[in-house]
Amino acid sequence: MAMTMKLNIVSAEKEIFSNLAEMVIVPGEMGDLGILPQHSQLLSILKAGEVIITEQGGKQESVYVSGGLLEVQPHVVTILSDTAIRAGELDAHSAEAAKERAEEMLKDQESEINFAKAEAQLAEAIVQLKMIEKMRKKKGGH
Questions:
Q1: What is the pTM of this model?
Q2: Residue range 95-123: mean pLDDT, rounded
Q3: Contact residues for 59 (Cβ-Cβ < 8 A; gap 6+)
Q4: What's the CATH class of domain 5-87?
Q5: How far is 16 from 140, CA to CA, in rounded Å?
Q6: Which of 51, 21, 58 is nearest to 36 (CA)?
Q7: Which segments of the chain belong to CATH 2.60.15.10?
């Protein structure tokens, strides 16, 4: 039986995942990080992207995070994010609408603050849409 670690993914609203995992891949600020059981202690900033979880037994699951913090202890990994959504719960229509709103805000460019906010929202929507497309390909859908 493979070694495992406790993985907790928590959003501002609720706990998204709390179970044993054999491995987790997270979107670190400087690139993807692969975490295995007994990884050395680590604290890192996460960017918006896909968290890939290999659960005990080999089953894989994906979770979208809007960024956040990663804390690694020898037997426990914790991901804190404002927004965390299981890949199966992502809504393509909402993500597409968010992308369009962000693109409109970018065209308007009233202020630096709005521009930065629109860029961040656009990046999040694009990541969500990419994850949805990836899931559809895995399922053999359109």
A1: 0.71
A2: 69
A3: none
A4: mainly beta
A5: 26
A6: 21
A7: 5-87
Q: Which of 58-67, 102-111, 126-135 has the lowest mean pLDDT?
A: 102-111
Contact 80, 10 (CB under 8 A): yes
Q: Does CATH number 1.20.120 belong to domain 91-139?
A: no
Considering only residues 17 and 83, tell me which one the structure prediction assigns the higher pLDDT. Answer: 17
101 residue type, one letter: R
Could you give the residue range(s) of every CATH 1.20.5 domain in the chain?
91-139
| Phi (first) and psi of residue 23, to 5 degrees | -160, 155
Q: What is the average pLDDT across 64-76? A: 92
* Cβ neighbours, 10 Å, residue 56: 15
Distance CA 4, CA 37 (A): 6
Q: Which pLDDT band, with edges at 50, 70 and 90, does 25 fall under?
A: very high
Token readout for 112 is 């630096």
Examine the pLDDT at 135 and tell me if it is beyond 80: no
The DSSP secondary-structure symbol of 101 reads H
Q: How many CA atoms lie within 13 A of 79 on its CB side?
A: 34
